[in-house]
Design goal:
The complex is a heterodimer of chains A (about 230) and B (about 240).
Chain A lengths: L2 H34 L5 H13 L2 H12 L4 H8 L8 H25 L3 H9 L4 H30 L2 H6 L9 H10 L4 H29 L2 H4 L3
Chain B lengths: L1 H9 L5 E8 L3 H15 L1 E8 L1 H9 L6 E4 L2 H9 L3 E12 L1 E6 L18 E4 L5 H12 L3 H6 L3 E4 L2 H9 L5 E5 H4 L5 E6 L8 E8 L5 H10 L3 H9 L6
Parallel strand pairs in B: 1-2, 1-3, 6-7, 6-8
Antiparallel strand pairs in B: 3-10, 4-10, 5-8, 5-9
The chains are: A mainly alpha (about 230), B alpha/beta (about 240).
Chain lengths: ~230, ~240
């Protein structure tokens, strides 16, 4: 296996984890907000959050480049701090996170909406603070949705091509698995590399799914059901 | 009466036409050359533009074309070995140059290859499958800069040479290595310096008649046209070099 293939696997996994990390807190917060509260402009927020899900990934990539290019407002500020987004790992992680965010929020929101609000009310009447209620009642009940949302985000990041292709520098060590596959696909005589990476990609996704099943079964609130 | 007119309109045996597959980097040249040639000879030209590699793959699979223009000697040799194109009716029709370009909005002040290590980021086509990128790597190796630039992470590999050019246009990289003819297409970049011919394999465009074509004579006529004054002036106007 080539050095570039190994680095592609490492980079894909890294991007996957970083994407989930970046999305988790804002994602859970936003999912809770959208499921529990109404506020002016809510439809606008919902649309913006779900946009990366429906527009072509290259379009998202285009906007990322425009937003974070050295000559833009945000990109310029970051550049002064020494952070480069375009053609860096930061940019690729950001692209993966942006693409995975809607999936994470959507799944978590669904889980949160399915929780019977009586459990939360009961906890509050018994004296739990909102925060404690969230961590001890809401979260365990929504756990399967949170895990599923994170896994979807992770898988989406693993498979992300369009936006990542635009912000990647394309050199060795900067190609994720999809980019590496495309690279070898275009190079005559590299069929073996393509097949190897395709198989590895499938195995990684299957492993992610298996891990999510395990996490849901071991730590979810479904553990508590048998007691009632 | 109606039947006669219909039959008359249907028959186009009087028209002569050939199909030509052309490497994408020559699309502007060929669009112009086609109108000149058709006017002079009465032969219609059906042109299709794509990357040399994908065109070669199509021809190998039996696509009905009469002439093939490749920006890459590798692909025409590939077809030649398989006897898919004629080894006899084959010639070099143009050459190109490699240049280093910089964004007009952010000049670097670099005027020679030796100074490239000062640059922040340089975009080239991916050397493994973009011909322009392969030439760029050769030139950088020749100047002893390839290892250093790679180690310092200063290179950006673009999927095509036009994407490499786009990065320079937007000012996302400080410099780009592209064909001279690409640089002339946009006024957002200017040439910082040219790469000398001896720093890379000659960039040659090859034309060949496809074996088994029924329009051999017409295809040969177009092949002859590539040696004409008219074609040469179109080439020079767009920044190509004569063969």
């Amino acid at each position: 296996m080539l050095e570039s293939e190994i680095s592609a696997i490492y980079l894909s996994l890294l991007m996957g984890f970083l994407a989930v990390l970046l999305c988790l807190v804002p994602g859970v917060s936003l999912a809770w907000l959208l499921s529990r509260r109404n506020f002016p402009g809510k439809p606008v927020v919902e649309t913006v959050v779900f946009l990366p899900l429906v527009i072509p990934p290259v379009v998202t990539g285009f906007f990322l480049i425009r937003l974070f290019s050295r000559h833009s407002l945000i990109g310029g500020l970051l550049a002064d701090m020494g952070i480069r987004v375009v053609f860096s790992w930061a940019g690729m992680a950001l692209a993966a996170a942006v693409m995975g965010f809607p999936l994470l929020v959507r799944t978590m929101r669904g889980a949160l909406e399915n929780i019977n609000p009586r459990f939360e009310s009961a906890a509050r009447t018994l004296g739990c603070s909102p925060l404690r209620t969230f961590f001890t009642v809401t979260l365990p009940l929504a756990w399967p949705g949170i895990v599923a949302g994170s896994v979807l985000c992770f898988a989406r990041a693993l498979g992300e091509f369009g936006a990542t292709a635009m912000v990647s520098s394309g050199t060795l060590g900067n190609r994720t698995i999809p980019l590496e596959i495309f690279h070898h696909y275009q190079t005559p005589g590299h069929e073996a590399e393509v097949i190897r990476l395709v198989v590895i990609s499938l195995l990684l996704s299957a492993a992610a799914l298996a891990a999510s099943e395990m996490l849901i079964n071991r730590y979810g609130a479904s553990r508590y059901r048998s007691r009632h | 009466m109606l039947l006669v007119t219909c039959c008359g309109a249907g028959g186009r045996d009087g028209e002569r036409g050939i199909t030509v597959y052309v490497a994408a980097s020559m699309s502007d040249v060929f669009k112009e050359a086609a109108s000149v040639f058709t006017r002079e000879s009465g032969i219609d030209l059906g042109l299709e533009f794509a990357s040399s590699g994908s065109l070669a793959r199509k021809i190998e699979a039996g696509a009905p074309t009469d002439l093939f223009i490749s920006a890459n000697k590798k692909w025409i040799d590939y077809l030649d070995e398989r006897r898919i194109i004629s080894s006899v009716d084959r010639k070099i029709i143009a050459r190109n140059q490699l240049v280093c370009v910089e964004p007009v909005i952010e000049p670097t002040g670099i005027t020679a290859a030796q100074q490239l290590l000062r640059a922040q980021r340089i975009s080239i086509g991916d050397p493994e499958h973009v011909p322009a990128g392969a030439y760029a790597r050769e030139a950088l190796v020749h100047h002893g800069l390839w290892e250093a630039l790679n180690r310092q992470g200063k290179l950006v590999f673009a999927m095509t040479v036009r994407v490499a050019l786009a990065f320079v246009e937007q000012g996302e990289v400080s410099l780009g290595i592209v064909y001279k003819t690409d640089a002339l297409l946009t006024d957002k970049v200017k040439v910082a310096f040219n790469f000398a011919q001896e720093t890379h394999t000659p960039i040659t465009y090859h034309a060949s008649v496809v074996s088994g074509t029924k329009k051999v004579e017409d295809a040969r006529m177009f092949l002859e046209f590539f040696s004409s004054e008219a074609f040469h002036s179109i080439l020079l106007k767009r920044g190509f070099l004569l063969p």
